[in-house]
Here is the input.
Amino acid sequence: MQLQEHLNQEQLKAAAHVEGPMLVIAGAGSGKTRIVTYRIANLIDLGVPSTEILAVTFTNKAADEMRLRIQKLSQKAILACTFHSLGARILRESISSLGYKNHFAIFDADDSEKVLKECLAERHIKDEKGTLKSMRLGISHAKNHMENPDDELLADIYQLYQKKLQSYNALDFDDLLFLTVKLFQQEPEILEKYQKMWNFILVDEYQDTNQAQYNLLKLLSAR
Here is the structure.
């Protein structure tokens, strides 16, 4: 592939990079996604099996567009997905190590709120002055930042909420990342399996990653 026919000089340097980590810092509309796409196509052109390449982004639309562009450029299919769909994919295969069954349900916001209401009722806490919303946001923050809540009441509700979810064999949306990171931290053999699976990991809009997403990427690439 003649990259110089499709990219400017700065884009070319990034797209032609092969071994080792690389961070592209550029403003909006400068072609960062284009660089990711052409770098993947170039890797395939250099002989890297498409099954060894993982592309991660933030929306299903962006993942679909990237997948189609790469297929058009290289006639090869790669795994291009969102962080959460990547987590779901891994957990469907390996979550039994955390005490869940592989056919777990993924609760939406309404289902998760019902479970949280059960927790508040069990602790005889009324939903006054936005208590439910505050608890929901606090739990989500804790999971996305991979930390335990400092507030004693929130920590108690958080623990109870997770126990109830597990009793239903269910995950909420944040668990798709939180539990994947937890799985990798607790089960090094499972982590190694996925590290060996993807030798090249490319992330679009990396600057928007939260702590859970960063930890997931760091674990997968630490080999």
